[in-house]
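mind reviewing this stuff:

——
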Amino acid sequence: MPARLRTLVTVLCAAVLGALLPVTAAHAESRTVQGGRLDWGIKSSFQSYVTGPVAKGSYSLTGGAATVGGSAFRFHSATGAYDGDTGAFRAAFSGGVHFLGHRTGAGAHQLDLTVSRPTVSISGSTGTLFVDVTSKAKGTGAVTTSRQVPFAALSVGGIDMKGGGDAVALDNLPATLTAQGARSFAGYYTAGTALDPVSLSVDVQAAARQQEPKPSSTPAEARKSPEPRRTSGGAIEDGAVDWGVRRTFREYVTGDIADGEWALTAGAQDGGALFRFPGGEGTYEDGDLAAAFEGAVRFTGAHGLDLSLSAVRATVEDGRGTLYADVAGPGLKGEKVPLVTFAAEGLKPADGLVKITEAPAKLTARGAEAFGGMYRAGTVMDPVSLAVALTADAELPALPDLGTAPTTSASPQAERTTGPEPSADPVASATDDGDFPALPVSLAAGALLLVAAALVAVAVRRRRAQPAASPADEG
């Protein structure tokens, strides 16, 4: 083949590959799942057994898990990956539930089970729910902890997970206990037992584009490590306190009796199982703290329920913490009330941050009055989490991320809402990140190769029509 013809073919092949590689790479890349919620009651009859007259137990929420509806737990802050081409999906959620029952004395319980970190994995027609489980065996009392046990099989048949939308929402996926799940469930149920259905919704981020690293224009002197940050104490740069008041109180407010709601104002944020009061200001010095926070929450409902908490403040002195708020309600008009006390021993900064994580809290006598006698002094309330930054670059802990609220489905069955409905015929469509329309790979390859073949044929015909060249011209 003449040199010029070989060059032409090489250029055309490079053009084909150059056009195809970005398309295939973009479609093969999984997209990031970040933010969302998973609602699952584990097994509602088990909940009733634990809290009923036989086990006489209770459950508590850990890691920011919340309750939702009549008997479901809400897990938060999804992370994972989703491939719209194959439908492969994996999302891990945060939070857990700790069940206790059949008290045997000295604070011990025969029934002691914790289920946490649920992860949903879907590949083709197979769906699996994995969880971390810590359980005490019924007979021996031996405690075992297992990570990411394939706890339940999820029925996903007939659900087309393929798509390209910015969210994935699945409603009421039937769940069946696996053999491994039965063993980790401390033998309370056998394999094949129907568990509560699983519902989830997550946000899906657009595929990230590859970018060439840009050379730094910052002088070497400016790139040196900054001066050590001040962490000994002084003024607070920022802060937040997270507190859910009391789980059963929230359930009472939104339940059938009060049939009420709560509203957040002045910057307060809803983290599912807790309320965040941000904008902390104050001082910290040698383990003692005094800080004020922004935001307010108001609970309203039937039977005269109207309770507002605002101007939240926290103090720590000699290892003892107190959470205050201005309380407005029946008989109270914005009075400053010490609501709960919590343990805060050994409070020290780390990386410019002073933190208290889920410290057990008890209602004060004044707090009991603020709740209208609904609870007695000393009642266990929701734990208190607090974080204050002593340096401008210290980052506060992230609030539980529940993602975008899913679109309510009219069907009680699992339903795909990952993107547009599939079409029967292949059509060109715009990419999700605003790029040029992408043809199917096989179609694009065929078109470009046909163009290359046509150009080669034209070149050959022209060459045959010319007089014979000398060997020197053959290249």
Remarks:
- The chain has six helices and 24 strands.
